[in-house]
Protein backbone atom coordinates (compact mmCIF):
# COMPACT_ATOMS: atom_id res chain seq x y z
CA UNK A 1 0.00 0.00 0.00
CA UNK A 2 1.36 3.44 -0.84
CA UNK A 3 2.18 6.12 1.73
CA UNK A 4 0.21 9.04 3.05
CA UNK A 5 -2.09 11.43 1.21
CA UNK A 6 -0.94 15.04 0.98
CA UNK A 7 -3.66 17.56 0.03
CA UNK A 8 -2.98 21.17 -0.93
CA UNK A 9 -5.81 23.69 -1.28
CA UNK A 10 -6.06 27.44 -0.97
CA UNK A 11 -8.59 27.29 1.87
CA UNK A 12 -7.96 24.98 4.76
CA UNK A 13 -10.50 24.27 7.48
CA UNK A 14 -9.52 25.71 10.83
CA UNK A 15 -12.35 24.12 12.87
CA UNK A 16 -11.94 20.87 14.78
CA UNK A 17 -14.96 19.44 12.89
CA UNK A 18 -14.81 20.58 9.25
CA UNK A 19 -18.09 21.16 7.44
CA UNK A 20 -19.07 21.60 3.79
CA UNK A 21 -19.11 18.90 1.11
CA UNK A 22 -15.62 19.14 -0.38
CA UNK A 23 -13.98 19.77 2.97
CA UNK A 24 -15.73 16.76 4.50
CA UNK A 25 -14.75 14.50 1.57
CA UNK A 26 -11.09 15.51 1.75
CA UNK A 27 -11.21 15.18 5.56
CA UNK A 28 -12.65 11.63 5.23
CA UNK A 29 -10.06 10.62 2.64
CA UNK A 30 -7.28 11.90 4.91
CA UNK A 31 -8.71 10.12 7.94
CA UNK A 32 -8.58 6.82 6.03
CA UNK A 33 -5.04 7.13 4.73
CA UNK A 34 -3.48 9.53 7.24
CA UNK A 35 -1.44 12.40 5.93
CA UNK A 36 -1.26 16.13 5.56
CA UNK A 37 -3.50 18.98 4.49
CA UNK A 38 -1.69 22.16 3.58
CA UNK A 39 -3.35 25.49 2.78
CA UNK A 40 -3.16 29.26 3.20
CA UNK A 41 -3.53 30.51 6.77
CA UNK A 42 -6.77 32.52 7.09
CA UNK A 43 -4.88 35.32 8.88
CA UNK A 44 -2.46 37.34 6.82
CA UNK A 45 0.82 38.82 7.87
CA UNK A 46 2.38 35.86 9.75
CA UNK A 47 5.83 34.47 8.97
CA UNK A 48 6.19 34.06 5.20
CA UNK A 49 9.42 32.16 5.08
CA UNK A 50 10.28 29.81 7.84
CA UNK A 51 8.03 26.80 7.69
CA UNK A 52 4.42 25.74 7.99
CA UNK A 53 2.23 26.47 11.02
CA UNK A 54 0.45 23.50 12.52
CA UNK A 55 -3.31 24.10 12.77
CA UNK A 56 -4.43 20.66 13.92
CA UNK A 57 -2.97 17.19 14.44
CA UNK A 58 -5.18 14.14 14.88
CA UNK A 59 -5.55 11.21 12.49
CA UNK A 60 -3.94 13.59 9.99
CA UNK A 61 -2.16 16.94 10.24
CA UNK A 62 -3.23 20.35 8.96
CA UNK A 63 -0.44 22.80 8.18
CA UNK A 64 -0.71 26.37 6.91
CA UNK A 65 1.57 28.77 5.07
CA UNK A 66 1.15 32.50 5.60
CA UNK A 67 0.51 35.13 2.96
CA UNK A 68 1.64 38.72 3.44
CA UNK A 69 -0.81 41.49 2.48
CA UNK A 70 1.20 42.06 -0.68
CA UNK A 71 1.12 38.36 -1.58
CA UNK A 72 -2.62 38.25 -0.95
CA UNK A 73 -3.12 41.22 -3.28
CA UNK A 74 -0.87 39.98 -6.08
CA UNK A 75 -1.11 36.18 -5.84
CA UNK A 76 -4.73 35.70 -4.68
CA UNK A 77 -6.69 38.79 -5.80
CA UNK A 78 -4.25 39.52 -8.63
CA UNK A 79 -3.06 36.59 -10.71
CA UNK A 80 -5.49 33.97 -9.37
CA UNK A 81 -8.68 36.03 -9.44
CA UNK A 82 -8.00 38.85 -11.92
CA UNK A 83 -6.18 36.76 -14.53
CA UNK A 84 -6.82 33.01 -14.21
CA UNK A 85 -10.44 33.25 -13.00
CA UNK A 86 -11.67 35.49 -15.85
CA UNK A 87 -9.65 33.50 -18.43
CA UNK A 88 -11.19 30.22 -17.27
CA UNK A 89 -14.68 31.76 -17.18
CA UNK A 90 -14.48 33.21 -20.70
CA UNK A 91 -14.26 36.86 -19.56
CA UNK A 92 -10.98 37.91 -21.07
CA UNK A 93 -12.32 41.47 -21.18
CA UNK A 94 -11.93 41.50 -17.36
CA UNK A 95 -8.33 40.26 -17.25
CA UNK A 96 -5.99 42.67 -15.42
CA UNK A 97 -2.40 41.99 -16.39
CA UNK A 98 0.24 43.33 -14.00
CA UNK A 99 3.82 42.07 -13.95
CA UNK A 100 3.81 41.94 -10.13
CA UNK A 101 0.74 39.62 -10.17
CA UNK A 102 2.48 36.95 -12.19
CA UNK A 103 5.82 37.29 -10.39
CA UNK A 104 4.18 36.90 -6.95
CA UNK A 105 2.04 33.97 -8.13
CA UNK A 106 5.16 32.12 -9.21
CA UNK A 107 7.06 33.13 -6.07
CA UNK A 108 4.29 31.91 -3.73
CA UNK A 109 4.11 28.58 -5.58
CA UNK A 110 7.89 28.26 -5.35
CA UNK A 111 7.83 28.96 -1.61
CA UNK A 112 4.95 26.54 -0.97
CA UNK A 113 6.85 23.88 -2.95
CA UNK A 114 9.93 24.41 -0.79
CA UNK A 115 7.90 24.15 2.43
CA UNK A 116 5.99 21.12 1.18
CA UNK A 117 8.84 19.12 -0.39
CA UNK A 118 10.43 18.24 2.92
CA UNK A 119 7.18 16.53 4.01
CA UNK A 120 6.77 14.35 0.89
CA UNK A 121 8.06 10.78 0.57
CA UNK A 122 8.35 8.96 -2.76
CA UNK A 123 5.38 6.69 -2.13
CA UNK A 124 3.01 9.48 -1.04
CA UNK A 125 0.07 10.66 -3.14
CA UNK A 126 -0.06 14.45 -3.53
CA UNK A 127 -3.44 15.96 -4.45
CA UNK A 128 -3.33 19.64 -5.40
CA UNK A 129 -6.55 21.62 -5.74
CA UNK A 130 -7.36 24.45 -8.09
CA UNK A 131 -6.01 27.35 -10.07
CA UNK A 132 -4.05 28.92 -7.21
CA UNK A 133 -1.44 26.15 -7.58
CA UNK A 134 -1.03 25.47 -11.31
CA UNK A 135 2.82 25.66 -11.23
CA UNK A 136 3.18 23.78 -7.92
CA UNK A 137 3.98 20.35 -9.40
CA UNK A 138 6.62 21.87 -11.68
CA UNK A 139 8.25 23.51 -8.64
CA UNK A 140 8.06 20.27 -6.65
CA UNK A 141 9.65 18.30 -9.51
CA UNK A 142 12.48 20.85 -9.66
CA UNK A 143 13.12 20.08 -6.00
CA UNK A 144 13.36 16.36 -6.77
CA UNK A 145 9.90 15.25 -5.62
CA UNK A 146 9.08 11.93 -7.32
CA UNK A 147 5.77 11.14 -5.64
CA UNK A 148 2.65 10.89 -7.79
CA UNK A 149 1.06 14.34 -8.00
CA UNK A 150 -2.53 14.91 -9.09
CA UNK A 151 -4.33 18.16 -9.83
CA UNK A 152 -8.04 18.90 -9.74
CA UNK A 153 -9.39 22.06 -11.36
CA UNK A 154 -12.63 23.19 -9.70
CA UNK A 155 -13.42 25.81 -12.35
CA UNK A 156 -13.90 25.53 -16.15
CA UNK A 157 -10.89 24.65 -18.29
CA UNK A 158 -10.15 27.71 -20.45
CA UNK A 159 -10.87 27.82 -24.14
CA UNK A 160 -7.76 27.55 -26.29
CA UNK A 161 -8.07 31.11 -27.60
CA UNK A 162 -8.44 32.52 -24.05
CA UNK A 163 -5.10 31.00 -23.03
CA UNK A 164 -3.37 33.47 -25.33
CA UNK A 165 -4.34 36.16 -22.82
CA UNK A 166 -1.87 34.76 -20.28
CA UNK A 167 1.35 36.77 -19.99
CA UNK A 168 3.31 33.62 -20.95
CA UNK A 169 0.76 31.37 -22.72
CA UNK A 170 3.13 28.42 -23.20
CA UNK A 171 3.49 27.98 -19.43
CA UNK A 172 -0.02 26.60 -18.91
CA UNK A 173 0.58 23.26 -20.68
CA UNK A 174 4.03 22.94 -19.10
CA UNK A 175 2.63 23.51 -15.61
CA UNK A 176 -0.01 20.82 -16.16
CA UNK A 177 2.51 18.36 -17.63
CA UNK A 178 4.41 18.23 -14.34
CA UNK A 179 1.38 16.45 -12.79
CA UNK A 180 0.73 12.73 -13.26
CA UNK A 181 -3.03 13.16 -13.34
CA UNK A 182 -5.11 16.21 -14.27
CA UNK A 183 -8.72 15.96 -13.11
CA UNK A 184 -11.46 18.18 -14.52
CA UNK A 185 -15.13 18.61 -13.71
CA UNK A 186 -16.75 17.56 -16.98
CA UNK A 187 -16.26 15.83 -20.30
CA UNK A 188 -16.41 19.27 -21.93
CA UNK A 189 -13.48 20.48 -19.80
CA UNK A 190 -11.53 17.32 -20.57
CA UNK A 191 -12.08 17.88 -24.28
CA UNK A 192 -10.80 21.46 -23.95
CA UNK A 193 -7.68 20.32 -22.08
CA UNK A 194 -6.92 17.65 -24.67
CA UNK A 195 -7.52 20.21 -27.42
CA UNK A 196 -4.86 22.42 -25.81
CA UNK A 197 -2.34 19.55 -25.84
CA UNK A 198 -3.31 18.60 -29.40
CA UNK A 199 -2.52 22.12 -30.54
CA UNK A 200 0.85 22.09 -28.76
CA UNK A 201 3.86 20.82 -30.76
CA UNK A 202 5.55 19.78 -27.49
CA UNK A 203 2.78 17.21 -26.80
CA UNK A 204 2.18 13.78 -28.28
CA UNK A 205 -0.74 11.41 -27.70
CA UNK A 206 -0.04 7.87 -26.47
CA UNK A 207 -2.14 4.92 -27.71
CA UNK A 208 -4.00 4.76 -24.36
CA UNK A 209 -5.03 8.42 -24.52
CA UNK A 210 -2.41 9.72 -22.07
CA UNK A 211 -0.37 12.74 -23.13
CA UNK A 212 3.41 12.68 -23.52
CA UNK A 213 4.90 16.13 -23.01
CA UNK A 214 8.67 16.28 -23.41
CA UNK A 215 9.83 13.52 -21.07
CA UNK A 216 6.66 13.22 -18.98
CA UNK A 217 3.37 11.40 -19.41
CA UNK A 218 0.13 12.57 -17.83
CA UNK A 219 -3.46 11.37 -17.79
CA UNK A 220 -6.39 13.77 -18.22
CA UNK A 221 -9.74 12.61 -16.84
CA UNK A 222 -13.09 14.02 -15.76
CA UNK A 223 -14.20 13.55 -12.15
CA UNK A 224 -17.55 15.35 -11.72
CA UNK A 225 -17.66 16.70 -8.19
CA UNK A 226 -20.79 16.39 -6.07
CA UNK A 227 -22.14 16.99 -2.60
CA UNK A 228 -22.63 14.88 0.48
CA UNK A 229 -26.12 13.85 -0.66
CA UNK A 230 -27.53 12.04 2.39
CA UNK A 231 -26.22 14.62 4.86
CA UNK A 232 -27.70 17.49 2.88
CA UNK A 233 -31.07 15.76 2.39
CA UNK A 234 -31.24 15.02 6.14
CA UNK A 235 -30.50 18.67 6.97
CA UNK A 236 -33.31 19.77 4.63
CA UNK A 237 -35.80 17.32 6.18
CA UNK A 238 -34.87 18.48 9.68
CA UNK A 239 -35.55 22.09 8.68
CA UNK A 240 -38.88 21.32 7.04
CA UNK A 241 -40.98 22.43 9.97
CA UNK A 242 -38.53 24.91 11.44
CA UNK A 243 -40.34 28.04 12.56
CA UNK A 244 -37.46 30.33 11.61
CA UNK A 245 -37.91 29.81 7.89
CA UNK A 246 -40.31 32.73 7.86
CA UNK A 247 -43.99 32.31 7.09
CA UNK A 248 -44.11 35.44 4.95
CA UNK A 249 -41.90 34.04 2.21
CA UNK A 250 -45.03 33.33 0.19
CA UNK A 251 -46.19 30.17 -1.56
CA UNK A 252 -44.42 30.59 -4.87
CA UNK A 253 -40.84 31.03 -3.84
CA UNK A 254 -38.09 30.94 -6.46
CA UNK A 255 -34.60 30.75 -4.95
CA UNK A 256 -31.13 31.70 -6.17
CA UNK A 257 -27.99 31.10 -4.07
CA UNK A 258 -24.60 32.22 -5.32
CA UNK A 259 -21.44 34.00 -4.40
CA UNK A 260 -21.81 37.43 -5.94
CA UNK A 261 -19.72 36.73 -9.04
CA UNK A 262 -20.01 37.91 -12.63
CA UNK A 263 -19.85 34.28 -13.81
CA UNK A 264 -23.21 33.47 -12.19
CA UNK A 265 -25.37 35.41 -14.68
CA UNK A 266 -27.21 37.33 -11.95
CA UNK A 267 -28.21 40.46 -13.90
CA UNK A 268 -29.83 38.31 -16.62
CA UNK A 269 -31.52 36.21 -13.91
CA UNK A 270 -33.07 39.35 -12.40
CA UNK A 271 -34.07 40.60 -15.86
CA UNK A 272 -35.70 37.24 -16.61
CA UNK A 273 -37.63 37.39 -13.35
CA UNK A 274 -38.69 40.91 -14.31
CA UNK A 275 -39.89 39.63 -17.72
CA UNK A 276 -41.79 36.85 -15.96
CA UNK A 277 -43.43 39.42 -13.64
CA UNK A 278 -44.27 41.64 -16.59
CA UNK A 279 -46.04 38.77 -18.38
CA UNK A 280 -48.16 37.65 -15.41
CA UNK A 281 -51.91 38.32 -15.32
CA UNK A 282 -53.29 40.16 -12.24
CA UNK A 283 -55.14 37.02 -11.08
CA UNK A 284 -52.02 34.78 -11.27
CA UNK A 285 -50.43 33.74 -7.96
CA UNK A 286 -47.69 36.03 -6.74
CA UNK A 287 -44.18 34.63 -6.95
CA UNK A 288 -41.11 36.02 -5.20
CA UNK A 289 -37.44 35.61 -6.00
CA UNK A 290 -35.24 35.09 -2.94
CA UNK A 291 -31.67 35.80 -4.03
CA UNK A 292 -28.95 35.07 -1.50
CA UNK A 293 -25.65 36.42 -2.81
CA UNK A 294 -22.90 37.45 -0.39
CA UNK A 295 -20.25 39.69 -1.99
CA UNK A 296 -16.78 38.20 -2.54
CA UNK A 297 -13.41 39.58 -3.73
CA UNK A 298 -14.73 43.13 -3.34
CA UNK A 299 -11.32 44.69 -3.87
CA UNK A 300 -11.48 43.52 -7.51
CA UNK A 301 -13.25 46.18 -9.60
CA UNK A 302 -15.37 43.70 -11.60
CA UNK A 303 -16.93 42.43 -8.36
CA UNK A 304 -17.85 45.92 -7.18
CA UNK A 305 -19.40 46.62 -10.58
CA UNK A 306 -21.65 43.55 -10.52
CA UNK A 307 -22.93 44.48 -7.05
CA UNK A 308 -23.91 47.97 -8.19
CA UNK A 309 -25.57 46.62 -11.34
CA UNK A 310 -27.65 44.09 -9.43
CA UNK A 311 -28.79 46.55 -6.79
CA UNK A 312 -29.92 48.86 -9.55
CA UNK A 313 -31.93 46.14 -11.36
CA UNK A 314 -33.50 44.79 -8.13
CA UNK A 315 -34.46 48.31 -7.02
CA UNK A 316 -36.01 49.12 -10.40
CA UNK A 317 -38.02 45.87 -10.58
CA UNK A 318 -39.28 46.16 -7.01
CA UNK A 319 -40.23 49.78 -7.68
CA UNK A 320 -42.21 48.67 -10.71
CA UNK A 321 -43.91 45.52 -9.40
CA UNK A 322 -44.04 45.64 -5.56
CA UNK A 323 -47.31 46.25 -3.74
CA UNK A 324 -47.91 47.14 -0.09
CA UNK A 325 -47.98 43.46 0.85
CA UNK A 326 -45.62 41.91 -1.74
CA UNK A 327 -41.93 42.35 -2.49
CA UNK A 328 -41.15 40.42 -5.68
CA UNK A 329 -37.33 40.37 -5.26
CA UNK A 330 -35.64 39.84 -1.91
CA UNK A 331 -31.95 40.27 -2.25
CA UNK A 332 -29.84 39.18 0.72
CA UNK A 333 -26.16 40.12 0.80
CA UNK A 334 -24.89 37.74 3.42
CA UNK A 335 -24.15 34.04 3.73
CA UNK A 336 -26.84 31.82 5.20
CA UNK A 337 -26.06 29.02 7.62
CA UNK A 338 -25.99 25.64 5.85
CA UNK A 339 -28.93 23.97 7.59
CA UNK A 340 -31.15 27.00 7.06
CA UNK A 341 -30.10 27.04 3.40
CA UNK A 342 -31.14 23.39 3.07
CA UNK A 343 -34.56 24.28 4.53
CA UNK A 344 -34.97 27.25 2.19
CA UNK A 345 -34.21 25.06 -0.84
CA UNK A 346 -36.88 22.61 0.27
CA UNK A 347 -39.36 25.42 0.78
CA UNK A 348 -38.81 26.79 -2.76
CA UNK A 349 -40.94 25.84 -5.76
CA UNK A 350 -38.06 26.47 -8.15
CA UNK A 351 -34.34 27.20 -8.12
CA UNK A 352 -32.60 29.41 -10.67
CA UNK A 353 -29.02 28.58 -11.66
CA UNK A 354 -28.10 30.86 -14.56
CA UNK A 355 -24.29 30.72 -14.74
CA UNK A 356 -22.64 32.06 -17.90
CA UNK A 357 -19.73 29.72 -17.08
CA UNK A 358 -19.41 27.40 -14.09
CA UNK A 359 -17.14 24.45 -13.35
CA UNK A 360 -19.94 22.38 -11.82
CA UNK A 361 -22.36 24.41 -9.64
CA UNK A 362 -23.03 22.65 -6.39
CA UNK A 363 -26.08 24.78 -5.61
CA UNK A 364 -27.95 22.87 -8.35
CA UNK A 365 -27.08 19.57 -6.66
CA UNK A 366 -27.92 20.86 -3.19
CA UNK A 367 -31.32 22.06 -4.37
CA UNK A 368 -32.19 18.65 -5.83
CA UNK A 369 -30.92 16.77 -2.75
CA UNK A 370 -33.00 19.01 -0.45
CA UNK A 371 -36.37 18.38 -2.15
CA UNK A 372 -39.26 16.33 -0.84
CA UNK A 373 -39.31 13.50 -3.44
CA UNK A 374 -43.08 13.34 -3.16
CA UNK A 375 -43.66 17.01 -3.95
CA UNK A 376 -40.39 18.39 -5.32
CA UNK A 377 -39.53 21.79 -6.70
CA UNK A 378 -38.10 22.33 -10.18
CA UNK A 379 -34.49 23.12 -11.06
CA UNK A 380 -33.91 25.66 -13.84
CA UNK A 381 -30.32 25.14 -14.89
CA UNK A 382 -27.98 26.96 -17.26
CA UNK A 383 -26.54 24.87 -20.09
CA UNK A 384 -23.19 26.48 -19.25
CA UNK A 385 -22.98 24.98 -15.74
CA UNK A 386 -20.99 21.75 -15.54
CA UNK A 387 -23.93 20.23 -13.65
CA UNK A 388 -26.01 20.39 -16.86
CA UNK A 389 -23.88 17.68 -18.44
CA UNK A 390 -25.54 14.99 -16.32
CA UNK A 391 -28.65 16.72 -14.92
CA UNK A 392 -30.44 16.73 -18.24
CA UNK A 393 -33.89 16.44 -16.65
CA UNK A 394 -33.71 19.90 -15.14
CA UNK A 395 -35.25 22.67 -17.27
CA UNK A 396 -32.11 23.60 -19.20
CA UNK A 397 -31.85 27.23 -20.29
CA UNK A 398 -29.59 29.56 -22.21
CA UNK A 399 -28.64 32.25 -19.66
CA UNK A 400 -28.23 34.82 -22.43
CA UNK A 401 -31.89 34.39 -23.48
CA UNK A 402 -34.07 36.42 -21.09
CA UNK A 403 -37.36 35.31 -22.70
CA UNK A 404 -36.46 31.64 -22.52
CA UNK A 405 -35.61 31.99 -18.83
CA UNK A 406 -38.82 33.91 -18.09
CA UNK A 407 -40.80 31.15 -19.84
CA UNK A 408 -38.90 28.53 -17.85
CA UNK A 409 -39.97 30.20 -14.58
CA UNK A 410 -43.64 30.09 -15.70
CA UNK A 411 -43.28 26.46 -16.80
CA UNK A 412 -41.63 25.45 -13.52
CA UNK A 413 -44.27 27.11 -11.35
CA UNK A 414 -47.11 25.54 -13.34
CA UNK A 415 -45.54 22.08 -13.73
CA UNK A 416 -47.83 19.16 -12.77
CA UNK A 417 -46.72 17.10 -9.80
CA UNK A 418 -46.11 13.90 -11.83
CA UNK A 419 -43.71 15.66 -14.14
CA UNK A 420 -41.95 17.33 -11.20
CA UNK A 421 -41.50 13.95 -9.54
CA UNK A 422 -40.17 12.28 -12.69
CA UNK A 423 -37.68 15.07 -13.39
CA UNK A 424 -36.57 15.17 -9.76
CA UNK A 425 -36.03 11.42 -9.62
CA UNK A 426 -33.77 11.54 -12.68
CA UNK A 427 -31.83 14.57 -11.38
CA UNK A 428 -31.40 12.98 -7.95
CA UNK A 429 -29.97 9.81 -9.53
CA UNK A 430 -27.38 11.99 -11.29
CA UNK A 431 -26.57 13.81 -8.04
CA UNK A 432 -26.09 10.48 -6.24
CA UNK A 433 -23.74 9.21 -8.96
CA UNK A 434 -21.35 12.07 -8.22
CA UNK A 435 -21.58 12.02 -4.41
CA UNK A 436 -18.51 13.79 -3.10
CA UNK A 437 -17.18 10.67 -1.34
CA UNK A 438 -17.33 8.76 -4.66
CA UNK A 439 -15.55 11.67 -6.34
CA UNK A 440 -12.68 11.68 -3.83
CA UNK A 441 -12.30 7.87 -3.93
CA UNK A 442 -12.21 7.84 -7.74
CA UNK A 443 -9.58 10.56 -7.94
CA UNK A 444 -7.28 9.00 -5.34
CA UNK A 445 -7.61 5.52 -6.92
CA UNK A 446 -6.82 6.92 -10.37
CA UNK A 447 -3.79 8.82 -9.03
CA UNK A 448 -2.54 5.69 -7.28
CA UNK A 449 -2.74 3.80 -10.60
CA UNK A 450 -0.44 6.30 -12.37
CA UNK A 451 3.04 4.95 -13.17
CA UNK A 452 5.76 6.44 -10.95
CA UNK A 453 8.18 9.20 -11.90
CA UNK A 454 11.79 8.02 -12.30
CA UNK A 455 14.66 10.44 -11.82
CA UNK A 456 17.26 10.52 -14.53
CA UNK A 457 19.76 12.19 -12.26
CA UNK A 458 19.59 9.76 -9.35
CA UNK A 459 17.75 10.24 -6.08
CA UNK A 460 16.03 13.55 -5.40
CA UNK A 461 17.92 16.32 -3.72
CA UNK A 462 15.65 17.75 -1.01
CA UNK A 463 18.00 20.63 -0.33
CA UNK A 464 16.42 22.45 -3.23
CA UNK A 465 18.88 21.82 -6.06
CA UNK A 466 17.29 21.47 -9.48
CA UNK A 467 17.26 17.95 -10.84
CA UNK A 468 16.32 16.67 -14.27
CA UNK A 469 13.34 14.38 -14.14
CA UNK A 470 11.58 11.94 -16.38
CA UNK A 471 8.67 9.65 -16.21
CA UNK A 472 8.61 6.37 -18.09
CA UNK A 473 5.68 6.01 -20.40
CA UNK A 474 4.20 2.75 -19.16
CA UNK A 475 0.47 3.18 -19.55
CA UNK A 476 -1.14 1.37 -16.62
CA UNK A 477 -4.30 3.36 -16.03
CA UNK A 478 -7.45 1.49 -16.98
P1 LIG B 1 -18.78 28.45 -6.41
O1 LIG B 1 -17.84 27.35 -6.01
O2 LIG B 1 -18.43 29.12 -7.70
O3 LIG B 1 -19.04 29.45 -5.33
P2 LIG B 1 -20.86 26.40 -6.26
O4 LIG B 1 -22.32 26.51 -6.55
O5 LIG B 1 -20.19 25.23 -6.90
O6 LIG B 1 -20.20 27.77 -6.70
O7 LIG B 1 -20.62 26.25 -4.71
C1 LIG B 1 -21.06 27.24 -3.84
C2 LIG B 1 -21.17 26.67 -2.44
O8 LIG B 1 -21.27 27.77 -1.53
C3 LIG B 1 -22.42 25.83 -2.24
O9 LIG B 1 -22.15 24.78 -1.34
C4 LIG B 1 -23.42 26.81 -1.63
O10 LIG B 1 -24.34 26.22 -0.75
C5 LIG B 1 -22.51 27.75 -0.87
N1 LIG B 1 -23.08 29.09 -0.87
C6 LIG B 1 -23.18 29.92 -1.92
N2 LIG B 1 -23.79 31.07 -1.54
C7 LIG B 1 -24.10 30.93 -0.25
C8 LIG B 1 -24.75 31.76 0.70
N3 LIG B 1 -25.23 32.96 0.38
N4 LIG B 1 -24.89 31.30 1.95
C9 LIG B 1 -24.41 30.09 2.27
N5 LIG B 1 -23.80 29.27 1.43
C10 LIG B 1 -23.64 29.68 0.18
From TrEMBL:
Q: Name one Pfam family in it.
A: Glyco_transf_20
Keyword Transferase set for record? yes
What InterPro entries does the record point to? Glyco_trans_20
Per the record, the domain of life is Bacteria
Query: Which Gene Ontology molecular function entries are recorded, alphabetically?
Result: alpha,alpha-trehalose-phosphate synthase (UDP-forming) activity
GO BP terms: trehalose biosynthetic process
Report the EC number(s), separated by commas if there are several: 2.4.1.15
Q: Which UniProt keywords apply?
A: Glycosyltransferase, Transferase
The family assignment reads:
Belongs to the glycosyltransferase 20 family.
Q: What is this protein called?
A: Alpha,alpha-trehalose-phosphate synthase [UDP-forming]
What species is given as this protein's source?
Roseivivax jejudonensis
Q: What gene is behind this protein? A: otsA
